[in-house]
Amino acid sequence: xxxxxxxxxxxxxxxxxxxxxxxxxxxxxxxxxxxxxxxxxxxxxxxxxxxxxxxxxxxxxxxxxxxxxxxxxxxxxxxxxxxxxxxxxxxxxxxxxxxxxxxxxxxxxxxxxxxxxxxxxxxxxxxxxxxxxxxxxxxxxxxxxxxxxxxxxxxxxxxxxxxxxxxxxxxxxxxxxxxxxxxxxxxxxxxxxxxxxxxxxxxxxxxxxxxxxxxxxxxxxxxxxxxxxxxxxxxxxxxxxxxxxxxxxxxxxxxxxxxxxxxxxxxxxxxxxxxxxx
Length: 278
Known about the structure:
Rossmann fold
């Protein structure tokens, strides 16, 4: 796929916003040469910020950025995806490039309609912690995507966190509801914990520091532990203690049902967005 100079593919980004910049930074940090990465964006400020992260080639024209690319990453807003896809169509056809889309709501069928049925396409649902190298991305590939191209997609997104492949495109709606929107759920819970801490007499600064560090520590324990979440919770919850009383209050107020309804609403909205965007 790549030229004889190196086995590493040429990667082009259409869009140079925060998510694209984070992925590019992660790729370069993990050893992908900056000279084998290019990016296009209509806003000079975005390109200037990107160049401060890595010395990649930057363009205002999409077609110029993707010329000769093995992998083209569409990192634009869903509303401009149709124009972005049209601008790369000739390069995709000429190079047999893998197309990776990180735009919510844009189906593979809609991209294939503009790029051709044999185009290798991977849809990705990343989340904002990718901005700090702790992302969680769901991936789905169409049947035209080779095993090598799947591995390339995995490497690209692994530069900013973990990846999970799914077997059907509709599963991305569930991933949107879980990890795509999930950071906001944690922020909301942390907001509530801070407010409750203040009501109990703590300063906002102290409550915020303790709540955010508690979230960080709990997440790290969950990731690194060899036991499941239920057991981790049990170990914190002493019979007759303070934590048990709080958990009983959560359960009595229907926390599990509340979370389930919220995530169902998010998944339903993801389906609606796909329909609205064609």
